[in-house]
Structures are given as C-alpha cells and as structure tokens.
Write a structure and sequence with these properties.
The complex is a heterotrimer of chains A (293), B (303) and C (259).
Chain A: H1 3-31, H2 38-55, H3 60-81, H4 91-113, E1 128-130, E2 133-135, H5 137-159, H6 161-171, H7 173-178, H8 183-208, H9 220-230, H10 235-254, E3 256-257, E4 260-261, H11 269-281
Antiparallel strand pairs in A: 1-2, 3-4
Chain B: H1 2-28, H2 36-52, H3 57-76, H4 84-104, H5 106-109, H6 123-126, H7 130-154, H8 156-166, H9 168-173, H10 178-204, H11 214-227, H12 232-256, H13 260-281
Helix pairs in contact in B: 1-7, 1-10, 1-11, 1-12, 2-3, 2-4, 2-10, 3-10, 7-8, 7-10, 8-10, 11-12, 11-13, 12-13
Chain C: E1 2-11, E2 14-24, E3 29-33, H1 40-47, E4 55-60, E5 63-64, H2 70-76, E6 78-80, H3 93-100, H4 109-114, H5 116-136, H6 152-165, E7 170-174, H7 182-197, E8 201-206, H8 209-215, E9 218-223, E10 226-231, H9 233-237, H10 240-258
Parallel strand pairs in C: 3-8, 3-9, 6-7, 7-8
Antiparallel strand pairs in C: 1-2, 1-4, 4-5, 9-10
Chain lengths: 293, 303, 259
C-alpha cells in the first residue's frame, strides 16, 4: 500500500463529500430535518455548470460561479415553495417532502440533459508524480477549492453579521428572534448557502469524474454517513466525518490482511458498515452536540 | 384496452398490498421504514427461486414471508436506540445493502442480469385467461391482507400501536413493552410486504436488483401519502390512483413520440411532485384517518 | 409497600438525588413535597425505571425492582402519571381508557385471529369498566371525543382515570393539581381520597401545601436532592428546615418577579 497515494485519494474524496455533507448538516442544524435533496442540488450544480460552459460556451470557472449562485437561489425557491409551509409539521414530514424534492430535481435533470454520461471536456488529465504518488493537477485544484470554501465559510460564520445571525438562530431560534434577528430571512440565507455548497461539491465531482443524473443520489448514503459520523448538525463535524469516511473507504479497500481483503464490489456497503458502527459506538458522532431532547 | 385494464388492476392490487403494509408500519406503528423495497425483493426472489426449484406456490409464498420477517426483525432491532430520522436512513441503507448482495452474489440469482422466465403458477389450467385469473388471485390476497390489518388495527394490539406513535412512554407506564410491539409490527409489515413481492415476481416473470431500487420504496410511500396515512382503505385508493398515472405515462410515448428515457424521467417527476403537493396542500391524503368509535353494548354499559 | 433506600442519582456531576429514602405504607396516601428542582420528579423517574439510579435500592411488596424497565414495573403493580400528562390525542377518550388496561388478550397479534371472540368479550367488559370510571370522574359525556379536544384540566382527570384503569394497587401521581383551577383541584383531592378508600395506595408529588395537608397522612420533604424532613403534614409544615427551604425559593421567585 502506497501511503501517500492513499492519503491523497482520501483527501480528494473527503473534499468532494465534505461540501455536500456541510450542506446537509446546515439544513439539519437550522430546520431540524435530514434533507434528502442536498445531493440532488449537487447534481443540479454540476449540470448547470455543464450548461453554462458547454452549452453557452462560457469560461468554465465563470460557468461554475453562475451555477453555484443559481443553485443557491433555487434552494431559496425550494424553501419558498415547499418548506415554508411545513415549518409547523413534524421533522419527519419535512424529510419526506425533501425526498419528493429530490426525486423532482433528479427527474428534471434527467429530462433536460438525458441519462447519458457527460463531462466538462477537460480532456485526459496527465498525472504528476509527487513523493511516488500519481496526482492529477485537477485533484490538487479540487482539494484547494474545497479547503478554501471551508475556510471561507468558517470566516463568514464568525466575522459577518449574517454569519453571526445564522449561528444565533441555529443555537436558539426564540432567543435570536427576541434579539431582533429576522429568522425567516436567516432560513433563506441558509438555504442559499447550503445549496451553493452542494453545488460546489457537485461541480468538483464532475471535474474529477463525469456527470450523470444519478451522481448525487449515488453518494446519498455516503453523505449521510459523513454527517452522522461527524455529529449531525455540526459543520466542522461534517468536515471531520467526510475525512474519516473517505479514509475508511480508501484505507479499507487498500488494506490487505493476509488473504483477507474488503471485497471491492461491496464498496457501497462500507457506508452502511461505518454508519452502523457509529450509531452503535457513538450515536452523537465525533463532534456531536450533547443536546438534551 | 381490456388487457391494459387487467394489467392496471393487477399492478394496483400488488402495490396496494405493499402500501397497506407500509401504512401499517409508518402511520400506525410509527416505524418510518424506507426499506420497503427490500421486502418486495425478498418476497420476489424467494418465491421465484423456490418455485423454479419445484416447490408448491403456496409454500413459496409462506417462505417468502418467513425470510422477509427475518429481515424485518434485523432492521427493527436498532429501532430501540435510534431516533426516527436516523432509523429511516438506516433502513434505506439496509435495503440497499441487500440489493448490493443480490447484485454481487451471482450464484444466487444471476446477479445484475436478474431472473428471467419465472414460471406463472397454475398457468396450465388457465391458458389464455391467465391474466384474469391473476386479477382474482391478487384480489384475494389483497382482501386477506386488508381484513388482517383492519382487524389488527382495531384490536388491543392496534390500540397500543396507535398509543405508542403519540406517546410511547405512557404506553410503557401502562405495562406495554414498546420495543417488542414495534418489532412485531415490523415483522407483520415485512410479511405482508413480501406477499406483494411474490405476486409481482410471478406476474412480471422477470426480476433484477434494478426493480427493487429505492425508487420503488418512494413510489409506495407516494401511494400511502396520497391515499391517506393511517387509513388503510386510503392505501388502496392511493395505489390505484398512482398506478393509473404511473402506467398511463406509457401512452405519452405513442401520443407525443417521446423517448423512453424522457418517460422514465417524467414518471419520477410525477412521484416527486405528488409527494410535495400532498404534503403541502393535503397532508392527510385523499382519505384521512378516521376517528374510531367504540362499539357500545345496547344497555349503554350501565347496570 | 414501596421502599426506597438511600437512592442516588447523578446527572453529569450534578447530584440530583443524594441518599434519598422513603416508604409508602399499603393503604396510605403519602405525600412527597419540596421546592422546584428538589428532585421529586427525578425520584419518580428513578423509582419507575425511567432513569437508572447510581446507588441504593428500591423494593415493592418486599421484592426488589432494581433495574427493571418502566413497563415491567408497571406490570408488577405500580402505575405512574406524568406532570405534563401525555395522552394520545388522536385517540378517543374511551380508547385512551381501554389502552390503559393491563394484560389484555388481544395484545398478541396472533390471538387477534385465533381468539377474536374472546377479545370482543373482554373488550366489552373493559368498556363497561372504562365507562364506570369515566362516569366517576365526570368525563363519560366526552367518551367518543378525541382526547385532543379536551381541556388541560380534563386531560389531567383523564390520566387519573387511566391510572385507575390499569387496576394497579399503587399509584404514583406527579403533581395532579398543577395547572388546574381551584375547583378542579378540590375535585382532584376528593377523587384521591375516594380512590384511596377503594383500596388504592397513593404516592403524590405536590408543591401545593394545601393539597398535601388536605389528603396525605404522611409526608416526605425533599430539598436539593436530600431528605430534609418527614412526618404528619402538620408537623412538617412547622418544621423550620421546611419553612426555610420553601421561603428560600419564594424569595428567589420574588426577586425574579421584580427584575
């Protein structure tokens, strides 16, 4: 096993997953439900980028920027059209509604762009060798973008009025309202941010591999796994969870103990195994808040 | 048109059974199971494989129920520890893992290629009228499941389950073993769900892991939500309405010359839009759950 | 009947119960009082297996019930109510009563099919009993109403009726008069005495002294998770430690009110 190679693969995978996981955890933290739609917002972001870049011929970076913003606004629209009416419902009803939304987004993507596989037309990527590991420049770019997005988000949460309003609202909604924060507006900001983050995640996946209408949903369990491992509702937990999960995946598959090896064709089940282990050993996750019910 | 009508009735009947099963789990027993497709899969595969091996049909169905109840038991176990949304995610993961298993273990059931040419029971007796016979077969099984669940929900057990869904701690304070009740409810859900899967396999005659993807689970959830959570008659109505819409999309192909790919997308959109529309506009569904009035003895209960 | 010996309970370093002991004699109405946060409800939760305890022992009719979960304790013969009553609001009042009855034949799904006649027979008897109890608490006219349509006070009364429906001999009532008006509170006290005369043993948590002195024959006082006094209501009322515990919190309340 080539440690550097596996480590870098882990880092790339973690970068992609973390952004979608953050998206999921942000919605959970503020609206208290597990949204199945965030992965589809990732797909949507990736396809919108494809549309702006390949369809309209824009520069890829510019296309990505537009796609992220448009996806963010679509997230706000989803709240206005659906979730606004479900504030008083149980969390479970919102979860089911998010499944409805997820199916709708996926089928719309499918209807518009078809079921075939697409890519951004970057051509073949030639790897450079760093410490014996084969690393394509695009993957360095992916890790870089994800890292800056996360650092940027951290700074945003702590140093801006909107960021502080978000934190206050997710800590205690009533208290935030009492101090004059417009929580309905904060909810919209969070939808924008969460969906924009998901879009970035989707675009990064699209950059590394390809686009298909199922690219988001195929990562559904993995994303949930990252969030739960890290501690649901905690943004930093989502990052940590993504790293732990990616490491489990990459090291788990690379590990050979004698003839024992995790069968490659069961890779998707790894999310299930990690999920079960976490729920059994530490249901709150690594950085889970010890909130009393 | 006649053939289409029979097909519609059979599919609606099969989905009705699956929806009744889900309704009992979710709306009555507060077990938000997102692995319903797994019960279908177990029912379908068990029944198909055993029937192909020469086992009598009725035994195949019973075996399907038995295997499915084992799976139900396994996924019910963590329900004690986990919050509802965690458990929902766990159930979908378990169902997907099962599908992965069928897909990977090719020795079992041809893996991704699926089982083809599954024989139809009693086909030698009915010949060209087979579809009509199947309508009756499905109707009989549906009637049995309906009667079974209806009585169960009205029984003391059903009362306890309906009590648990609102306040489990109070039911425990009345001496009811909440966890045990939930496990039993799940097993009943698993057994009834397997019946639907078995009927599905012998009607369609071809099953593969693709058939039992989460989309099937969501389709059944839609039927339950549209029909009305907690109302089992509603489940049949919901299944009928959604099956009609779902299977009618095939006419779009001939009417507007739409590609198959697009039809598939539109079907999924239909499910998604229905879920959202009903949850926002009519959360109780077409037939909301009724208040249960208790039979009063003629003397008014006074002596 | 119920013996609690030196029970400890810790919540993350906070000593909620510190060697609390008490005894409920068969046939009595025993009171448990103390200011808010003194550990009364915690003691209830520990005694009925909702929380595990960190030390001590509890026995019921001479048998240890340590470590048993809530539903098993209920089956042994102890029924508790909750401070904020939790009734299934989508079920009717009479269904609420029926579900409370212990060990019914139809609790096993298999019997629903094999012994349906027995179940309807049993149900008929249960309905009759439920109607008697509802009549006693003046809720019979609401029997077919969903519990969600009841007022807060009616729900309190309903939970008491449910507790009686379980047919258990020991009832632990958690603040049955909290949040109800004076008339209703008076009615509740009469009911408790009535029930007691019919053979039920009652342990009642209260912080309303008036209720306690009205119905209880023996009272335990908790403060900050400790036994501070016990005795007849009159003795306890004049105990300086009790007065201090109560006055202390009253002062804080007043301070809060003026702020």
């Amino acid at each position: 096993m080539d440690i550097i190679q596996v480590l870098f693969n882990t880092l790339t995978r973690a970068s992609e997953l973390a952004l979608i996981a953050i998206s999921l955890t942000m919605v959970y933290d503020l609206l208290k439900f597990a949204s199945f739609a965030q992965n589809e917002f990732a797909t949507l972001g990736a396809y919108l980028t494809f549309f702006f870049a390949v369809g309209l011929g824009l520069n890829l970076l510019l296309a990505a920027l537009f796609a992220v913003i448009v996806t963010g606004f679509l997230g706000m629209a989803a709240d206005k059209i659906i979730f606004r009416f479900l504030r008083e419902s149980t969390a479970f009803i919102r979860l089911v509604a998010s499944i409805g939304l997820a199916l709708s987004i996926r089928s719309i993507v499918h209807a518009f762009w078809g079921g075939q596989i697409r890519d951004y037309g970057l051509g073949i990527q030639y790897p450079v060798v760093i410490f014996g590991a084969q690393i394509t420049p695009i993957r360095i770019f992916i890790v870089g973008v994800a890292a800056s997005a996360m650092i940027g988000f951290h700074l945003f949460l702590h140093n801006t009025t909107v960021g502080r309003a978000i934190r206050a609202t997710s800590d205690n909604k009533e208290l935030a309202e009492a101090t004059g924060i417009d929580t309905e507006r904060v909810v919209l900001y969070v939808w924008f941010l969460a969906c924009a983050f998901a879009a970035i995640g989707g675009i990064l996946i699209g950059l590394e591999t390809q686009l298909s209408p199922n690219m988001g949903v195929s990562l559904l369990l993995a994303t949930f796994c990252c969030v739960i491992v890290g501690g649901i509702g905690n943004v930093y937990g989502a990052m940590a969870g993504a790293f732990v999960f990616a490491a489990a995946e990459n090291f788990g598959l690379a590990l050979k103990i004698g003839v024992l090896q995790f069968p490659v064709n069961y890779k998707p089940a790894l999310a299930f195994v990690v999920l079960i282990l976490t729920l059994l050993i530490r249901p709150r996750g690594i950085l889970g808040k010890a909130k009393g019910d | 048109m006649y053939a289409f009508l029979l097909h519609l009735l059979i599919m609606a009947g099969i989905y009705s059974i699956g929806t009744l099963s889900l309704n009992f789990q979710v709306a009555i027993s507060s077990l938000s199971n997102f692995g319903q497709a797994a019960f279908f899969a177990i029912g379908a595969y068990t029944s198909a494989l055993m029937y192909m091996a020469g086992v009598p049909f009725i035994v195949c169905m019973l075996a399907a129920m038995a295997f499915s109840s084992v799976f139900a038991l396994i996924i019910a176990l963590p329900a004690k520890e986990l919050k509802a949304d965690y458990w929902a995610i766990m159930s979908i993961a378990a169902a997907e893992t099962l599908r992965l298993f069928i897909n990977n273990e090719k020795w079992l059931a041809e893996g991704p290629f699926g089982l083809r040419g599954i024989p139809r029971p009693l086909s030698e007796f009915f010949g060209s009228n087979y579809t009509l016979f199947y309508v009756f077969l499905v109707a009989i099984v549906l009637a049995m499941v309906y009667f079974f669940l209806n009585r169960l929900i009205a029984s003391p057990f059903g009362r306890i389950m309906r009590g648990i869904r609102e306040t489990d701690i109070l039911m425990a304070a009345f001496g009811k073993n909440v966890f045990r009740c939930k496990v039993i409810a799940m097993v009943i859900g698993g057994m009834t769900g397997a019946l639907a899967g078995s009927l599905y396999a012998h009607y369609i005659t071809f099953i593969s892991p693709e058939h039992f993807a989460p989309t099937l689970t969501f389709l059944i959830w839609t039927m339950m939500i549209v029909g009305g959570q907690g109302n089992i008659t509603g489940s049949i109505v919901g299944a009928l309405v959604i099956t009609l819409l779902h299977t009618s999309t095939r006419f779009l192909k001939d009417l507007f010359y739409l590609p198959t790919d697009l039809i598939a997308a539109l079907r999924t959109l239909l499910i998604g839009a229905m879920i959202i529309f009903f949850l926002v506009a009519r959360p109780a569904g077409l037939l909301p759950e009724k208040k249960r009035t208790i039979y009063r003895p003629p003397d008014g209960g006074k002596h | 009947m119920l013996e609690i010996r030196e029970v400890d309970k810790n919540f993350g370093g906070l000593q909620a119960l510190d060697k609390v002991s008490m005894e409920v004699r068969e046939g009595s109405i025993t009171g448990l009082i103390g200011p808010n946060g003194s550990g009364k409800t915690t003691l209830f939760n520990v005694a009925t297996g909702v929380y595990s305890k960190d030390g001590g022992s509890i026995s019921f009719r001479g048998e240890s019930i340590d470590g048993l979960p809530l539903h098993q304790i209920a089956r042994r013969g102890i029924t508790r109510t909750f401070q904020i009553p939790r009734v299934p609001k989508r079920m009717t009042v009479i269904e609420n009563m029926l579900v409370a009855a212990g060990r019914q034949i139809g609790e096993k799904p298999i019997d629903v099919f094999l012994r349906w006649n027995k179940i309807t027979e049993e149900d008929r008897a249960l309905i009759r009993r439920a109607e008697e109890l509802l009549e006693m608490v003046d809720l019979l006219h609401l029997a077919e109403e969903p519990a969600g349509n009841l007022t807060g006070a009616q729900i309190k009364i309903l939970s008491l009726a449910q507790a009686l429906m379980t047919n258990n001999d020991l009832l632990l009532l958690d603040e049955p008069t909290a949040g109800v008006d004076l008339d209703m509170s008076q009615r509740m006290m009469e009911l408790m005495v009535d029930i007691n005369k019919k053979g039920k043993t009652i342990l009642v948590v209260e912080h309303d002294m008036r209720v306690i002195s009205g119905v209880c024959e023996y009272v335990y006082v908790l403060d900050a998770g400790r036994n501070i006094a016990e005795g007849k209501p009159v003795e306890v009322q004049n105990d300086p430690r009790v007065i201090e515990a109560y006055l202390g919190t009253e002062e804080i309340k007043e301070e809060k009110a003026t702020n």
